[in-house]
Specification:
Oligomer: single chain
CATH architecture of one domain: Alpha/alpha barrel
Order of helices and strands: HHHHHHHHHHHHH
Low-confidence stretches: 2-13, 18-24
Structural class: mainly alpha
Distance between the termini: 96 Å
Shape: globular
Length: 330
């Protein structure tokens, strides 16, 4: 090898230039990996906060309630739809006979059992996740969790849609039962028709759930701790009844708008605001006429939410009850 007198210096290879980093500051493949891991962690943490007992208690409470209050609901529905007094609504149902009294009960039974299961289960899991992982204050967590639970409930709107059609006398000749109603609507008007009236239901569910859970937990904290089973059950009934009836009364006009929107089929759906203005004009331009049937609805809600709250609390106690291990003598 030729030596030119220059000192021997070990040749060094420069490190390759760094790869161009996207504007986000992290290589693309790393970003995808981190997003994937982040999504997995979120999924594990979020859904891991859910407890199956909450879903089961909500389902059981709804079943007990619907079995007792459906005939009352049907009279309220007729008042909402036709704007008639309670005596006329009762006369309509009496004329139709007992065979039609429980007609359309399956949709609210299925919808309410699933709905209340979602309501209590999703609320508890979301609140737990927000408090434990994000250290959110308890009130903020309750409000957000209530809105999330209410929004999740809105996916069950097809049950309310079919219930409205079955309860309306002008559709009695179109459907013989719930499955037949679902098939008819989908076959003639598509799946989108099942979600007619989604907007007022979305607002009703989200806001009413947030109010309900905040007030319910405040009541459980501030009311005295009753020792006897009878007095504790009575307190649970009254607390749930008063809170549920009050919230139901506040949001009653949204139900009127929903029923009005869902009483049509196949035609182009109005917006909620347009329906509100139309109902206002049809009912002599008086806001008080939006509350036709509200007094009866308040009474039904009082009974309904009282039953649900009491059933939920008792089912929850039953599920969390520790089994007693019998003592064995040596």
């Amino acid at each position: 090898m030729k030596d030119d007198g220059a000192p021997n210096v070990a040749k060094t290879t420069d490190p390759p230039p760094p790869k161009r980093v996207p504007s986000g500051g992290t290589p693309a493949h790393c970003t995808e990996l981190e997003i994937s891991r982040g999504g997995s962690v979120f999924s594990d943490r979020f859904f891991g906060a859910f407890q199956w007992e909450e879903f089961a208690c909500g389902c059981g409470a709804a079943f007990v309630n619907i079995a007792a209050t459906y005939p009352i609901y049907k009279m309220i529905f007729r008042q909402m739809l036709h704007g008639v007094p309670i005596t006329s609504a009762f006369a309509q149902l009496r004329h139709e006979g007992l065979g039609f009294l429980y007609r359309g009960m399956f949709p609210p039974l299925a919808q309410k059992t699933i709905s209340l299961s979602i309501m209590f289960g999703v609320f508890d899991g979301t609140r737990r996740y927000l408090v434990e992982d994000y250290r959110l204050n308890d009130y903020g967590a309750k409000v957000i969790a209530g809105v999330v639970a209410g929004s999740a409930e809105s996916i069950l709107l097809p049950f309310e849609r079919v219930q409205t059609l079955l309860a309306d006398s002008k559709f009695h000749q179109h459907f013989s039962n719930t499955p037949n109603a679902f098939k008819y609507v989908v076959a003639h008007h598509g799946y989108r028709e099942l979600y007619r009236g989604l907007e007022p239901v979305f607002w009703r569910n989200g806001l009413s759930n947030a109010f309900f859970f905040v007030l319910r937990e405040e009541a459980s904290i501030r009311l005295p701790n009753r020792q006897s089973v009878s007095s504790r059950t009575a307190q649970e009934f009254v607390a749930g009844a008063v809170i549920g009836a009050s919230i139901s009364t506040i949001f009653y006009p949204l139900n009127v708008i929903k029923v009005s929107l869902q009483s049509d089929m196949g035609q182009r759906s109005e917006g909620s605001w347009q329906a509100c203005k139309r109902i206002y004009i049809e009912r002599d331009c008086r806001i008080s006429n939006f509350y036709r049937g509200c007094a009866f609805n308040t009474g039904r809600s009082f009974i309904s939410w009282g039953i649900m709250n009491t059933a939920y609390e008792n089912l929850k106690k039953l599920m969390h009850q520790q089994p007693q291990i019998p003592l064995t003598s040596e």
